[in-house]
């Protein structure tokens, strides 16, 4: 796991954008796995700025999002469909037909999960998967205790995850209780992973990610087994590591 330390959220976002943009520019066909939440907002902002300035072409890019809430329509401003359109897709020239998110509003969620995995596989898999990390170590919406072998599945969100995401909603009651998420195995199948972390509230999770044991109670720990993970993390999110170094040097 390569860890790139940066000063703050802005630097993390800039570095992440440079990373993704260089992949997009150097390929003639690329499949990106994309994440939502607060962490990648800055990355998307810099990708949009670059699109306007440098005209990076996204017509050869296919995207697969990690997750989507169950029960929110695509027009609901809190759905991840809406989030992706607002923050990235409607500002770059990616083709609508190349954009994929799980449908959390369909009749059969189980069928949707199977189809989503099938689609990713048939396209040839994900080249670079962008990930954030939950304070409890969740990746996508794979909560602690999720089997490392899971494919795309429906999850019941923990109260702590609902709390962490409630600032996007008007009331706690509106925060969905379930989501569809790529599974841990689906994430691990990506050829490359780019994990982003910023802020003091992520420092305990980052410490466990970098130094803890492999444990299904801490889903992100599986990334220790992936051969190609790059972490871009700011000083606050690495503050547990820094204090350890300070003591030992
Ligand atoms: N489902 C999302 C994840 O994909 C995200 O990476 C994580 C961290 O969110 P944030 O970046 O807002 O801290 O939790 C959310 O619940």
Automatic annotation (TrEMBL):
GO terms classed as biological process: carbohydrate metabolic process; glucosamine catabolic process; N-acetylglucosamine catabolic process; N-acetylneuraminate catabolic process
Active-site annotation: 67, 136, 138, 143
GO terms for MF: glucosamine-6-phosphate deaminase activity; identical protein binding
Gene3D superfamilies hit by this protein: 3.40.50.1360
Superkingdom of the source species: Bacteria
The keyword Hydrolase is assigned to this record: yes
Catalytic activity field: alpha-D-glucosamine 6-phosphate + H2O = beta-D-fructose 6-phosphate + NH4(+)
EC category: hydrolase
NCBIfam families registered for this protein in UniProt: nagB
Family named by the database record: Belongs to the glucosamine/galactosamine-6-phosphate isomerase family. NagB subfamily.
Name the UniProt record assigns to this protein: Glucosamine-6-phosphate deaminase
Species for this entry: Chengkuizengella marina
């Amino acid at each position: 796991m390569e860890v790139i330390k940066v000063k703050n959220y802005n630097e993390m976002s800039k570095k992440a954008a440079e990373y993704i943009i260089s992949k997009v520019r150097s390929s003639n066909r690329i499949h990106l796995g994309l994440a939502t939440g607060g962490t990648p907002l800055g990355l998307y902002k810099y990708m949009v700025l670059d699109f306007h300035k440098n005209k990076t072409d996204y017509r050869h890019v296919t995207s697969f999002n990690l997750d989507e809430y169950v029960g929110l329509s695509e027009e609901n401003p809190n759905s991840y469909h809406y989030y992706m359109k607002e923050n990235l897709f409607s500002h770059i020239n990616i083709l609508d037909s190349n954009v994929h998110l799980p449908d959390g509003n369909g009749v059969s969620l189980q069928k949707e999960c199977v189809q989503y995995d099938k689609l990713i596989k048939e396209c040839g898999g994900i080249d670079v998967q962008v990930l954030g990390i939950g304070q409890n170590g969740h990746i996508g919406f794979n909560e602690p205790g999720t089997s490392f072998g899971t494919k795309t599945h429906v999850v019941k969100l923990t109260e702590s995850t609902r709390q962490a995401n409630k600032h996007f909603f008007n009331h706690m009651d509106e925060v969905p209780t379930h989501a569809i998420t790529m599974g841990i195995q689906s994430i691990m199948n990506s050829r490359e992973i780019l994990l982003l972390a910023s802020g003091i509230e992520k420092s305990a999770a980052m410490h466990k990610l970098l130094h803890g044991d492999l444990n299904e109670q801490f889903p992100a720990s599986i990334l220790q087994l992936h051969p190609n993970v790059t972490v871009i993390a700011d000083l606050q999110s690495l503050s547990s590591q820094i204090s350890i170094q300070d003591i030992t040097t």
